[in-house]
Amino acid sequence: MRYRRNEGFRIEFNSPVNATFQIKRSDNHDQSLDDEKGKIFIHDMSLKGAKLSTSTPAQLKNIGDRIKIHFTLNEETFSLEGTIVWKREINKKWFYGLSFNEESYSQRELYDELKTFVHNNKGHIGN
To answer: Which of 7, 54, 88, 101 could form a disulfide with 81 if both were Cys (CB 3.0 to 4.6 A apart)?
Structure first.
């Protein structure tokens, strides 16, 4: 699947943002989170999704996996749910595209924090 960046803006972090994730499990139509959290890094983000990486490919196996990521930006904690839409290996690291579930967060709050991050850290807005 092609990686498309059709959003109005995308923040590229100078240093990846540390985050954790949990895989969403679906058993008999009941969706729950794995108790175990994995470590992941956020390389860039928009209001619709993010580019993530991990050094262990076994943690996220399939396109279509649903996960919840937890991270802090400007001292504000976020927990966003989304679906893995692409993955690829580059230099022994695994990169993933995450498309956010828009019902799992406030776009306005995320926008405000991303804007503040750019202002405070002179982050790079890419397209």
So the answer is: 101
What are the residue boundaries of the structural domains of the chain, listed by start?
10-120
Three-state SS letters, 84-106? EEEEEEECCEEEEEEEECHHHCC
**What is the value of pTM for the model shown?**
0.81
Dump pLDDT digits (tens) for 59-69: 677 888 899 99
Q: Return the CA Rg of the chain.
A: 14
The token pair that represents 31 in the structure block = 């969706």
DSSP state of 27: E
Report CA torsion sign: 52, 75, 113, 103. positive
